[in-house]
Amino acid sequence: MITPSSACLALALLAVPSSKPPTDASSDDVASRSSSAEEAEEAEEAEAGVGEGEDEADGSGDEDDEVLPTRRFMLGLEGVVMQAPPLRPQVVTFDPRFIGRTVSLGGLGLFARLRVHPRISVEATVRSGSARYAARPTEDPDVVSHDQVAADVGVLLFVARGQMVQLAFDGGVGGMGTRVRYELDREGTQLFGSGIVRVGANAEFLVKRIAFVVSVRAMGVLTNVERVRNRGELLQGRDLPAPVPAMQTLLVGSAGIAYRF
Questions:
Q1: Vertex 212 angle, CA 130 and 164, to 5°
Q2: Kind plus residue range of the DSSP H or E element containing 248
Q3: Residue 193 CB: number of other CB atoms within 10 A?
Q4: What is the C-alpha to C-alpha distance for residues 8 and 127, in angstroms, rounded to an integer?
Q5: What is the pTM of this model?
Q6: Number of domains, the chain
Q7: What letter would DSSP give residue 87?
Q8: Residues whose CB is less than 8 angstroms from the CB of residue 113 and which lie 6 or more positions away in sequence, other chains included
Q9: Is residue 181 a part of any domain in this protein?
Q10: CA–CA distance, 217 with 222 (Å, rounded to integer)
């Protein structure tokens, strides 16, 4: 028999909602957010890797043997000092007490370099040097001027490359023109040419678009001393040879600054 109290209990049980486990919607949202964050981090790392690769190619990161630098061309100006044997003219005599075994010629130079391989560059240079042999003040103001201009092409092999410093050995061939001018009681000029072969070492110090370049080179000079043009009143009608040895070695040092394109 159903009593009123039992009926009320049954209705109360029906009214209580059944407890169900929570749905997976919230966990799906968390997972999707985590995967989005991971993808964003991977994209940032990839962009950072590309930036590092560009820095490396530009010389601000570690160099890669298979990647050319971004700035491959260099054009610069340098100061030059040449150590050479003294002149041996026949129209005037130098006092050996006042002239050493070598003389120094100072001048300027222009150079251009193109990187064709991560470890190889080709180079073209033009360098000048001048020296003056003057009499002592107590004597006649006689002066002998020695001027030369050398142009050559060569190749540089980089044996050590870093972010800011690069070292290379180089070699090249070219030619040199020389003028010897005599300013005595009468004037005269001798003009002649020579062939040159050079080897040396270079150092480049890179600062973004600017490079500081230092080089030391040994230059072999071959001259046909009989092929000389003698000009002027002092040398008129005289067939004089070039006042230099047929084979000589010059030591050339230079330091300069260049812009990297």
A1: 155
A2: strand 247-260
A3: 15
A4: 115
A5: 0.74
A6: 2
A7: P
A8: 73, 74, 121, 122, 123, 156, 258
A9: yes
A10: 16
